[in-house]
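Deliverable D5.2: sample structural annotation.
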Amino acid sequence: MWFSPWRRILRGRSGDAKPSGLRAGTKFVEEDTGVEYTYDPVMRNWKKKVAPYSALVAKDGSTVWAEDASGKTIASGEAGVDDASVIQSATDFLPAGGGKLYLKGHFILTEKIELISEYKKLIIEGEGVRATRIEPPIGDYAFEFNFKGTNHGLLLKNVMISSDNENQKALHIIDGQNIKIEDCRFWNTEILIEGVDYFCEGFTLQRTQHYNCGVEFKKSGGTGSWADTTFDNVFFDHISAGHAAIKINGGGIYRSRIISTAYLTGGSFIQTSADGHFGTKNWALLKFDGEGGTAFDILGEADNIGNYILISYLPDTITLLNNPNNRKLGSVFLTQRPDVFRRYYYPTVGVNDAYGEPVTILYLANSIPEIRIRCTGTFGTDETITVKLSAEYAHNTLSFEKSFTSTGDYYLSTIDKANLLVDFEGVNPLKLTAQAKTNLSSTSVDVQIAVYKLN
C-alpha cells in the first residue's frame, strides 16, 4: 500500500486492510479491481464509489457486454450479432422501481428491445449522438415501451437512432405518461406514441433532430388524449412526401406547446387523420423552410379551436393549409416573410357575367389585411368589371364586391374589411379569395390584387 499526501489517495489491492482516522475525502483505490472508496470521518468508515448507472452496455472490438454498477458482468456476446440480446439482458436486470441504463458504442439490433410496465422512473442515456448510435432492426422498432397506463417516467437522452433505409422505426411507446426525449437524433426512424387501453400524456421532445421522420400519435383504444405534449426546440429536417413531422392519427393534442423549425421537401408538418385533431389550448411558435409541402394538412372532421399559432417564416414553396373539410384551426398569426412587403395575385376574369376561378390570396388570416384592387388595360364599350373578395369561414362565407367601368385603383376601407368579418369574437377566416368577371363575352382588362401589411 502506498499513499500520495498531495492527492490524499491510498492505493492498494482488494485484500489490503484500510486504515482509519483519516481526513475527509481521502480515497482508497484497489488497483487490481479499479474500485474506489472514500473515507467518511464522521461515520469512521469507507464508502464504496457506486457507478452513476444501474447497468452499462458497451462494446470493445468484437465483444459487447453489460455490467452492473459494481462492474459485475450481466451478459456478453459477439459485437454486431448479440447487441440486442445483451441490451435486453441489461434492461431485464434493472430494478422494478426503475434505474439507469447507460449505453456506449454503436449498436446494431437484430430484434427490438422490450421494456414492460414495472419500470417507473427509467433513464436510458448515451454518451452523445455522435458516440452512441443505435440501428433498429429492419421493419421493427429499436425500443418498445409498454407502460399499460400507469404513471411512469421515461427519459431517453444523448443517443442517435438511425438507419440508412427509409421508413424505419425508432420507438414505440404504449400507454405511457411523462415520457421525455432530449438531446437525441433520429434519422429515417419514426416515433410512435400509441394509446391502446389508456392515454399518453406529458410527452416531451427537447432539443431533438428528426431527418425524414417524425412523431405519430395513434389512438388504437383508450381516450386518445395527448394532453400536455411539449416540443421544445425540435428540428424536423427534409420531411419528404408521405411523411409528417407530427401525425395525429385519432384523438387529439391539446393543452400543449410546440416550438419547432421544419424543412419540408414534400411532406407535412402537422397532419390529422379523419378522426384526429390538433385539439384546443395549444400554443405553437413555428418556422418553415424547404422545397415543397404543406404546413397544416387538416384531414379530420373535428374543429381545432382555441389554438394560438405564430409563424415566423413561411416561404412561397410551402403551402400553409390543406383543409378539405373547412375545419377551424384557431388563431394563426403570419409574421413571416420579413423580406416581402406586398404580394400580388391575378385572378382570371370570367366572361358573360360569370366569375372566373377563385384565387386564394391569404390562408388563416388573423385579420383582414390591407388590400388594393387594380384594373389595367382597355375597357370595352359599356363594359363593367366586378371583383369579389370572399372570406371563407367553417360554416359560412362573407363577400365584398367592387365594380369598375374604367381603369384605376380601389383600396379596401375599414368598413369594407369589417363586412368580411363575422360578428362574434375569436373566429378568423380560413382563407381569403378573389374572383373577377366582365359583363361582356371577352375582355382586355387585367385585374391585380395587392395584399400588403400582412402582420
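Annotation notes: The helical segments are 83-93, 414-418. Residues 2-48 form one domain.
The annotation will be released with the project's public dataset once the embargo ends.
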